[in-house]
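To fix ideas, we give here one paired sequence and structure record:
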Amino acid sequence: MANTQFGGTESVESYRSKIVTILKKNGRAPLSDRELATKCRTNRGGAANFRKAVDALCQKGIICERRRGYVLSAVMGYFPATIVRLSRTFGFARPEEEGAQDIFIPGKFLQGAMTKDRVLIGNIPSRSGKPEGEVLAILEEADNRLTGIIVSENGRLMFRADTMSKTPLQIQRKDSVPYQEGEKVMAQVVYRGQRHAEHKVKIVLSFGEATRASVCAESIVAIHGVEPAFPEEVVQEAEALASAPIPEAKYAKRLDLRDTPIFTIDSTHSKDLDDAVSLERTETGYRLGVHIADVSYYVQPKTALDNEALKRGTSIYYANRVIPMLPECLSNGACSLNPGEDRLAFSALLDLDENGEIVKYDFRKTIIRSAVKGVYSEVNEILDGSASPEVLARYAAVRHMIPLMDTLCDIRLRERKRRGSPELETAEGKLILNEDNVCIDVQARTRGKSECIIEEMMLLANEAAAKMAHDKHLPFVYRVHDKPSPEKIENLERILLQLGVEVPKFTNIQPSHLAQILDGTRDTDLYPILNVMVLRSMTKATYSAEPIGHFSLALQDYAHFTSPIRRYPDLAIHRILSSYCETPDAAAIQKRFEAFVEQAAAQSSEAEIRAVTIERNCDDCYKAEYMQQHLGEVYDGIVAGVTDFGFYVALPNTVEGLVHVASLPESDWINDDSIAFREEQGDVCYRLGDSVRVQCTKVDVNSGNVDFALVEEGCESA
């Protein structure tokens, strides 16, 4: 590097180092641009590099320009973060520091920042006790697209975003696609102002009428970057694989189980059948076979098909739609374990003792032929003795296994309880659509014994796969569920004390502690509250290359092995276990797959969050579409959630709606620890689990929001 005192020019890197050192010494006192340049001894020849250094440090968030000059961000307590969520009046930013809590940002402090923008955050006084902040600078602008509705304002068509701003935005007509009032559209931000309301957009896509749930669902899928159609290259590759005959040499290397009674059990409309089962009694317990579609035979590493599957991460299911991870010629065809057809499988062959515990496991590449496509409802009928002669005849080849499966399931449920795994209850809705894809009914989804049987058998296979990887020291994609955070346990303990419930010794939180809370109150009025509180205390299950265990299942070793047609982590570990079964060299497999499992775990976790968000938001739109047909009707429900602005009521069919504080009698209402909404000075209180009668007063299909109003006895509207 040339020395400036001899007329040379300092490098950008040298200026960056000097600027950081100077600002650090100056503490919280800002330095103007001129003062900073002087202290850096910047001459005319070095001015350009000085400016580049300042700009680079500002862009990275290392320094920040305030009204009177530059300061070092760390000295001021400023930190970089990413905007992760926006509503009309606030947003949330996620700090880059690992494990840091999301920061609430009031709308007036967002400075026009948008989702996925990288920003610099400063803390501000909190009104809630939780971290609050303001956007000081936008470090990197994301390429933002928004969904919303075309509305008319003073005779002019404007864009009202689903999130971000209460104020409709101006539309730049140049390059915009045709649009009409009331249509659901996607817009691209083409100009940014200092506030969200100042942004300008162009319309890039129109989906159709915003009052249709199917239209809104299409926009939800699109805004999350999911493309339902596969690239042509991927389709061609999949079709070639699906139509190619399997060489006899491949059959010869596999264990032939085509004469073994094996069958699938799924819902009536399932087409991607990726798991089948077999079971027999032995002298010491049971011999369980869990036979999984051998997707890894078809989807080879680093192919176009594999890259697309990794990108998608999982199949997405909502209403009557499926966006598959693999093209249908594989997911519903060559890979699906259809009855009466020879299929390649990867089988977990497990020896269990009388208590249903795994005493021996063996993973083999197999050929199977499913005897029947079992249906949950029909197997339940066989179990309760109500099955018709036609159903019994169809299951003739495998019917002898069903009572045995029932017995093993009971044993496994007792074992799960012994381990201390908490039994948490979650409500799922089933959407009924007509031929026009309009939701005409919503029903609570019920689980019978056959669903429980399959779940327990899949759990055994998943546990065995993870156990093998752990025992053989293989790189792996584990399904993990960490312990609740100390903060969440402290909050749970405080609520238990407030409710008068005995508090377990939470010094070292165990699954059995949460099971104890639930079991002790299961038949009381407190159970609905505690079920919600325990659910909220849990961390989110995810994928990891590290076997940290699964807290809620109370298992040390766990992975997802049983659904490779619809989940990439399952396909990933099939690939690893297949390699080990073929050549049991753990060191070579470690070298080959170490980087792959890190990538697969990280991307699969992100894909799962995206899929869950899409499915939940789409279902909300369909439920709102159903309730649109029942405006004014009265329902009985229970209080299911409490916020600062009211409380949510869940109907027996799983539809939820908000009773807004504005619809309640005028009073000072407060949110009491998120377990009750009550008058601050009065006696009226609405607590989680309380039964209430409500009337459906307002529905917005576009947002999926339903509004309820409380109904007093004898005061229902006609």
